Amino acid sequence: MQNLKIAKSIFLLFLLAVSVANLAFFVYWYSASEVTAIMPSNTGYTIEALALNVTILEIILVLVGFVFAALGLFGYIEIKNAAVNKAVEEARETVSEQFLIWQREQTNQSSEPPEYGGDYKLEDEPVTDAKEAKGE
User: Fold this and answer.
1) Cα(44)–Cα(54) distance, integer angstroms
2) Most C-beta atoms within 10 A of its C-beta, which of 13, 35, 100, 102?
3) Would you list the domain boundaries of the chain?
4) DSSP 56-107
5) What span, in angstroms and rounded, lies between the C-alpha atoms of 75 and 67?
6) Could you tell me the CA-to-CA distances from 83 to 5, 72, 91, 92, 117 in Å, in that order?
């Protein structure tokens, strides 16, 4: 469980570093180029305005992609942990039930018939037909 927390922390730090680097590259690009998003007098956008719009959309899509990737990774890990915990809980419950049945059979505290449907019956049998055991 400790390794999972460390992995989450490392992943979040990596995500933060990539996001900061992306924003730093955008700020550098924005400051290095002279972008004007002013519409010209004729119809249509200028190439600079289109480039700015595309860049902003790229940044938004990258950030949304990182968020979905982080949610998917953590969701998978949590689903896996929940499944393992449920399997362990069911196994312990089954073992506990079987142990109680075994204890009742060993101590003969249960007057109920066993849960299995065997054909063994312990009834009063006459001892006149019994044979003597050899070597005892």
Assistant:
1) 15
2) 35
3) 2-107
4) HHHHHHHHHHHHHHHHHHHHHHHHHHHHHHHHHHHHHHHHHHHHHHHHHHHH
5) 12
6) 18, 16, 12, 14, 33
Distance CA 55, CA 61 (A): 10
- Distance from C-alpha of 107 to C-alpha of 47, rounded to nearest angstrom: 89
* Residue found under tokens 């998003």: 37
Tens of pLDDT along the chain (136 residues) come to 677 778 788 888 888 888 888 888 888 877 777 656 665 556 555 777 778 888 888 999 998 898 888 888 888 888 888 899 999 999 999 999 999 888 888 886 545 555 555 555 556 666 677 677 776 5
Cα 59 to Cα 136: distance, rounded to the nearest angstrom: 91
Predicted model pTM: 0.35
Single-letter residue type at 92 = R
